[in-house]
Amino acid sequence: MTQPLFSHRKHWAARLGTAPFLPMSRAEMAALGWDACDVILVTGDAYIDHPSFGMALVGRVLEAQGYRVGIISQPDWHSADPFRALGQPTLFFGVTAGNMDSMVNRYTSDRKIRSDDAYTANAEPNKRPDRAVTVYAQRCREAYAGTPIIIGSIEASLRRIAHYDYWSDTVRRSVLPDSKADLLIYGNAERALLEIAHRLGRGEKIGDIRDVRGTGFMVPQDWKPAENWIEILSTELDTPGVIDAHVDPYAMTPTGPTAQTPEGTAPVRIVPKAERLAARQELRARTVIRLPDYDQVKNNPVLYAHASRVFHLESNPGNARALRQGHGERDVWLNPPPIPLVTPEIDAVYDLPYARAPHPSYGDAKIPAWEMIRFSINIMRGCFGGCTFCSITEHEGRIIQSRSEDSVIREIEAIRDKTPGFTGVISDLGGPTANMYRMACRSKTIEQSCRRLSCVFPDICDNMVTDHTPLIHMYRRARAIPGIKKIQISSGLRYDLAVRSPEYVKELVQHHVGGYLKIAPEHTEAGPLSKMMKPGMGAYDRFKDMFEAASKAVGKKQYLIPYFIAAHPGTTDEDMLNLALWLKKHDFRLDQVQTFLPTPMALATAMYHTEKNPLKKVLGGKAEAVPVVRQGRTRRLHKAFLRYHDPDNWPLLREALKEMGREDLIGNSKKHLIPSYQPAGTGRQPEGTRAPRGGCGRTRSASGKPGSAKPAQTKAGAEGAAAKPAPGKPAPADRGRPPQVPRHPLSQRRGGGKSR
Asked: Same structural domain for residues 426 and 311?
């Protein structure tokens, strides 16, 4: 039985009360009457006391249980002195890179350093090191040797086993041996963090805490929690099984009811299903799966793909088994995933007394992530979509954890009453997805035994409840709050779920779309879509028809902004060409596009590294080959297909189309994809070509009419130009922009961009 989150007896320091902000200096500690911190949280982000920012959330959760929590934000990592700023914690250091993986935060998909950091005051870059968790943990150890160090949040969570690292183009070890941390907490940390804090507070040694779900640690190779534990090699789970011989219908051996039961044999007992399930669960609870060692997956792509497959199959808290993986003379041991929070627990987390503002030490500095999130509300966690390029499921899990409607309404009222600059507009009411709120499996028993990687691919599971009624009711109640003028829905929308509820689409279109709605088909072709685990374009077309009909019914001109991804594993040049032709046919011009960025531990990253498909069995000669785009020119080409209208891309596209035998798509009419001429000052001028008469320095719009050579803004729908932003307004945001400000910073989505 899982202990309720806040049912522990509070630590003695609860008598000291609540801090207006968690202290970042000794002076603030003294003002609170503290002589020391029990827990010091080290983070690579600026400290913003808001539940969408990880360190603020876990800090307030610990404070609610009576612990004195201090924050060291973005310390200078070149020495240990900044890590001594608050003194030695009485219990432990909690270390995180911040709301994003530090490598995703600092580098683009082309491995170029970004010029700004949305989680830093005034967007100042270079305020955190590469692989920040490892560096910070090492500095904490140097500052106070012997103090327990616990690492967590997105970077540690996604690097908990051996993983492919795109930036070094190598398979790296788990972050545990590199950081020398005592414990790693992965996924949603609240339940594990409180249990560990209370046990340390009672005097238990951190090296003895080995039974908490959602944690990882280093152990000797022969270590087991108890003698009755069973170890299984992962390779035994992913190989073709023995094929039993068919029964010979002409055999004369008696079988069935006429067969004689040998004397002394006990009669067959039919075991009830509940008893079988209980026995299976008890066995799983004392089973560990041994993944191939680090040295094996480092040198063998097939074993890496196999390890990734097994790792993802062991992700359901209801049936996951412990995992272990050798790293030299020791093993990384991962306990099963944490039990998701139930609604009263997640309500209590979000109802804590957050200041809902950046720490006063930042003064008037602008922090872009805060500016974007300050008027938005997270209503749920998790995603059962299972998109292979997305990291939500590896971190938050597939089980949806929803807040109550009352809790969400209280937060809207708090924003209205307490947040400076509020104009009556809630910028988002969502989370990892816009419309998975309160969706769950019809049966808890089925949910706990399920091994599917996605509840919606290749089709929506028959056991999944897709009722949008609770969400519709919340929208209506939220709109009725005095002082609320508009509630926008900006989180990624799962349109394949939305089409199941025409009432929801009508509600969304009539009240919560501000001219544009961003959705993510990601591609048009079956090959890459199957490797993404995304629905086909049929679902997009159905949603588009419903969206346009609902908009027309209320006299609004509103447009869909589709997002696509270039160079995803499983994508060929022909796939990208077909996508470009689809874009031209529908008169879309994309301002910014994203090239696939392999983030640690995602299934698509395993495809990229191994060129094998871990969605299917990979051992025993069963591995399916996956085409992968690695070369810089091909990656640029795939990106260029998405921006076929940009003259700077025409030389590259001409070369590629000729190589593909598709010169018929080069010409100066509406039926051609790109023109045969090159405007002056763009791209490189091909020899023997010139612009048509009257066309010097001009190009043609997607509709064939003369237009500026400057790429147009994103256009949507058959009306095309009608979808341009109004004068003075910015172009619609595109998920392909550098992934600096995710809508819900607690999650990691394809490097921070939306993934729906």
From this structure: no
pLDDT recorded at residue 681: 87
Q: Quote the pLDDT of residue 276.
A: 67
| Whole-number Å distance between alpha carbons of 386 and 531 | 11
pLDDT at 695: 34
Q: Are 196 and 180 in contact (CB under 8 A)?
A: no
d(CA 75, CA 95): 12
> Do 388 and 602 touch, CB atoms closer than 8 A?
yes
pLDDT digits (tens, 9 = 90+) for 676-705: 999 998 885 444 444 443 333 333 333 333
Residue 683 confidence (pLDDT): 81
Domain span holding position 286 = 12-228+282-334
Q: How many CB atoms lie within 10 A of CB 160?
A: 26
Asked whether residue 204 is domain-assigned, the answer is yes
Strands 183-185, 215-220: pairing kind: antiparallel
Same domain, 388 and 318: no
How far, in Å, CA of 62 to CA of 45, rounded? 19
Question: Do residues 311 and 423 both lie within one domain?
Answer: no
Number of domains composing the chain: 2
Task: Quote the DSSP letter at residue 439.
Answer: -
Sign of CA dihedral 184, 190, 195, 199: positive
Residues 464 and 535 in one domain: yes
pLDDT at site 703: 34
Q: In one letter, which amino acid is 667?
A: G
Q: How far apart are CA 725 and CA 709, in angstroms?
A: 18
Give me the pLDDT at residue 565, please. Answer: 96
Helices 502-511 and 469-479, axial angle in degrees (round to 10): 20
169 shares a domain with 31: yes
- In this structure, are 441 and 300 located in the same domain? no
Contact 177, 332 (CB under 8 A): yes
The predicted structure's pLDDT at residue 279: 75
Comparing CA positions, the residue from 322, 335, 330, 334 lying closest to residue 222 is 330
Tell me, yes or no, whether 51 and 137 share the same domain: yes
Q: Is residue 244 domain-resident?
A: no
φ, ψ for residue 449, nearest 5 deg: -105, -5
Q: What CATH number is attached to the domain comprising 504?
A: 3.80.30.20
Q: Which residues does residue 700 pair with via DSSP β-bridges, in sequence order?
A: 706
Give pLDDT, residue 508.
Answer: 97
Q: What confidence score (pLDDT) does residue 593 get?
A: 84
Residue 566 lies in a domain: yes
What phi and psi values does residue 241 have, to the nearest 5 degrees? -80, 170
Indicate whether 671 belongs to any domain. no
| Residue of 75, 27, 29, 112 whose CA lies nearest to 635 | 112
Q: Which residues of the chain have pLDDT under 70?
A: 1, 239-269, 271, 273-277, 684-756
Same domain as 320, residue 381: no
